[in-house]
Design a protein that fits this description.
By secondary structure, this protein is of the alpha+beta class. It is about 30% helix and about 20% strand. The protein has helices at about 5-10, 60, 115-120, 130-150, 210-220, 255-275, 280-290, 305-315, 320-330, 330-335, 350-360, 415-425, 435-440, 455-465; strands at about 20-30, 35-40, 50, 70-80, 85-100, 155, 160, 205, 220-230, 240-250, 315-320, 365-370, 395-400, 405-410, 450-455. The protein binds 4-amino-1,4-dioxobutan-2-aminium adenosine-5'-monophosphate (4AD) and magnesium ion.
């Protein structure tokens, strides 16, 4: 189907074989004896070189073959004398699908900054860095589906438009209706949007969890994998307004089963990338080393693939929030007042605290459990009272990763109707809005658990990219939605 792609040619093609390649020009180089055109079609990091003889094509054609132009090259595969490539294409014919005027085309063969590339998000997939990231992103998404399919989970599509605020944090985008025809305008002439979804209040989902729970209480094991939206105005390297989340939800799983699944799952998908994205990971590893050249040895990060292997080969550290607070309180930065945010039992951990635990104290991924009830969502199962903690806790778990902080958040869910209803009242949720959620606890309720993995944070970890805006093709953050 379609033309043969460069990755297939490099894997299996034989010398002497006729080929037709459709791809974009990366570079063109002319010497006395030959013209070399380096072509890439995005199927692989590697380019294939097409070679023409001087005078073989008219000057008027050659002039249009510049970086960024799109070509169809017809020729024969021959052994290459150049280093780093086994074969090249001896050109017989060329057709120019589209030119790219070097005066205007912003992607010239030189190193561009990530900030600059963010401004040209419509063209950045044509660079080595971004095509490598996008191929790895694809492989990780595929591995997610494979993992759950192989482990007896069903993919459940949960709604994007919803009336509930699953996280109860009020960080939602409201859905409005624009009437067909001439829209109503207010007295200043501005379009007057209706603040509703056909007469009801509705938002873009912040999480598919609540609907996922309905699925788990029927199909036992489900997962969602869809876009989620958060109207938090945070300009950080770890937050997006639109991100993708994977949310498995399992009946008959307690918190320990939930942790076991989270660890096994995240190790599986990272291992999948290590096994299937060798070239792209090596490229990003070299890129990272290049970027860190100017830093002193002690501040450089572990080579990318070594870091990934370390994570898949070692057990994550598991401890309670209460134990973590003790470690933090006894830590140097706490004693020397070097944390920006004060730490004591009851506070929500800030990224600096999470990173201290993971990067300085344990030096590996950490799963924190049993957080204070007061800082977690209403649906989390309340722990039996214990002497260890000064106030009630819930069966929550957060998985913290080096360089990232929180990558997964989850919990065992409150399955007891009365306790859940009390929590709903306590946090001020209108029970009429989530009557359907409460009913699952009335009819055949069951212990169950689940979690959410932020897909972009995973891609960030695997690719080693510092900014979350560089691991999603079209990032959405405050003031970004240009297309
Ligand atoms: O911790 P969160 O808010 O948990 C939930 O949404 C639960 N309903 C999940 C569940 O139990 N089914 O979000 C889960 C994960 C975080 O750990 C983080 O990785 C990611 O989603 N995340 C974000 N990623 C990018 N940008 C944001 N603004 C994010 N907010 C959360
Ligand atoms: Mg969380």
């Amino acid at each position: 189907m379609g033309p043969i792609q460069i990755n297939q040619i490099l894997k299996s093609a034989e010398v002497g074989q006729p080929v037709e390649i459709k791809a974009w020009v990366r570079t063109k180089r002319e010497s006395k004896n030959a013209i070399f055109i380096s072509l890439n079609d995005g199927s692989t990091l590697h380019n294939i070189q097409a070679v023409a003889e001087p005078g073989q094509f008219p000057e008027s054609t050659l002039r249009l073959i510049t970086t960024g132009a799109c070509l169809k090259v017809t020729g024969t595969l021959v052994e290459s004398l150049g280093s780093g490539q086994a074969v090249e294409v001896k050109m017989q014919d060329v057709l120019i699908y589209g030119t790219a005027d070097p005066e205007d085309y912003p992607l010239q063969p030189k190193k561009h900054s990530l900030e600059f590339l963010r401004e040209i998000a419509h063209l950045r997939p044509r660079t080595n860095t971004f095509s490598a990231i996008l191929r790895i992103r694809h492989a990780l998404a595929f591995a997610v589906h494979k993992y759950y399919n192989d482990n007896g989970f069903f993919y459940l599509h949960t709604p994007i438009i919803t009336a509930s605020d699953a996280e109860g944090a009020g960080e939602m985008f409201r859905v409005t209706t624009l009437d067909a025809g001439e829209p109503p305008r207010d007295e200043t002439g501005k379009v007057d949007y209706k603040e509703d979804f056909f007469g009801r209040e509705a938002n873009l989902t912040v999480s598919g969890q609540l609907e996922g729970e309905l699925g788990a209480l029927a199909l036992s094991k489900i997962y969602t994998f869809g876009p989620t939206f958060r109207a938090e105005n945070s300009n950080t390297t770890r937050h997006l307004a639109e991100f993708w989340m994977i949310e498995p939800e399992m009946a008959f799983f307690d918190l320990n089963d939930n942790m076991d699944l989270a660890e096994d799952f995240v190790k599986y998908v990272i291992r999948y990338a290590l096994d299937n994205c060798v070239d792209d990971l090596e490229f990003l590893e070299k890129r990272q080393a290049e970027e860190e050249k100017s830093k002193p040895q002690a501040e450089r990060s572990m080579p990318l693939t070594e870091k990934l292997r370390f994570v898949v080969d070692n057990p994550f550290e598991r401890l309670t929030y209460t134990e973590a607070i003790k470690i933090l309180e006894n830590s140097k930065p706490h004693k020397q007042k070097k944390f920006q945010y004060h730490v004591e039992w009851g506070v929500d951990l800030q990224s600096e605290h999470e990173r201290y635990l993971v990067e300085k104290h344990f030096k590996k991924p950490v799963i924190l459990t049993n957080y204070p009830r007061s800082i977690k969502s209403f649906y989390m199962k309340v722990d039996e009272a214990s002497d260890a903690a000064p106030a009630p806790t819930v069966r929550a778990m957060d998985v913290l990763f080096p360089g990232i902080g929180e990558i997964i958040g989850g919990s065992q869910r409150e399955e007891n109707y009365d306790v859940l209803l009390e929590r709903v009242h306590e946090v001020g949720i209108d029970p009429d809005i989530i009557w359907w959620y409460l009913e699952t606890r009335k009819f055949g309720t069951a212990p169950h658990s689940g979690f959410g993995l932020g897909f972009e944070r995973l891609v960030q970890f695997v690719t080693g990219m510092g900014n979350i805006r560089d691991v999603i093709p079209f990032p959405r953050y405050p003031k970004s939605a240009e297309f």
